[in-house]
């Protein structure tokens, strides 16, 4: 599955959240990551991420697509991130 994750977390947890996300996905922009994961990997990712989140103030949105061909990505402006994964 194609997975896109966006997050808005407290400043104290930003580094921890990014580190956990990068174990599973590719960083593409500030607070945005994407990649291919199996359903089991998604569940493991959510459990791992939940260990550092404060559910009273943090927000994480996980978008899943059954296949990358159903998604299109266009970049306007500066390309950010450290990978060449292109949809």
TrEMBL record:
<dbReference type="InterPro" id="IPR019199">
    <property type="entry name" value="Virulence_VapD/CRISPR_Cas2"/>
</dbReference>
<dbReference type="Pfam" id="PF09827">
    <property type="entry name" value="CRISPR_Cas2"/>
</dbReference>
<dbReference type="InterPro" id="IPR021127">
    <property type="entry name" value="CRISPR_associated_Cas2"/>
</dbReference>
<keyword id="KW-0479">Metal-binding</keyword>
<feature type="binding site">
    <location>
        <position position="8"/>
    </location>
    <ligand>
        <name>Mg(2+)</name>
    </ligand>
</feature>
<keyword id="KW-0051">Antiviral defense</keyword>
<dbReference type="GO" id="GO:0016787">
    <property type="term" value="F:hydrolase activity"/>
</dbReference>
<dbReference type="GO" id="GO:0043571">
    <property type="term" value="P:maintenance of CRISPR repeat elements"/>
</dbReference>
<protein>
    <recommendedName>
        <fullName>CRISPR-associated endoribonuclease Cas2</fullName>
        <ecNumber>3.1.-.-</ecNumber>
    </recommendedName>
</protein>
<dbReference type="GO" id="GO:0046872">
    <property type="term" value="F:metal ion binding"/>
</dbReference>
<dbReference type="GO" id="GO:0004521">
    <property type="term" value="F:RNA endonuclease activity"/>
</dbReference>
<comment type="subunit">
    <text>Homodimer, forms a heterotetramer with a Cas1 homodimer.</text>
</comment>
<comment type="function">
    <text>CRISPR (clustered regularly interspaced short palindromic repeat), is an adaptive immune system that provides protection against mobile genetic elements (viruses, transposable elements and conjugative plasmids). CRISPR clusters contain sequences complementary to antecedent mobile elements and target invading nucleic acids. CRISPR clusters are transcribed and processed into CRISPR RNA (crRNA). Functions as a ssRNA-specific endoribonuclease. Involved in the integration of spacer DNA into the CRISPR cassette.</text>
</comment>
<keyword id="KW-0460">Magnesium</keyword>
<keyword id="KW-0378">Hydrolase</keyword>
<dbReference type="GO" id="GO:0051607">
    <property type="term" value="P:defense response to virus"/>
</dbReference>
<keyword id="KW-0540">Nuclease</keyword>
<keyword id="KW-0255">Endonuclease</keyword>
<comment type="similarity">
    <text>Belongs to the CRISPR-associated endoribonuclease Cas2 protein family.</text>
</comment>
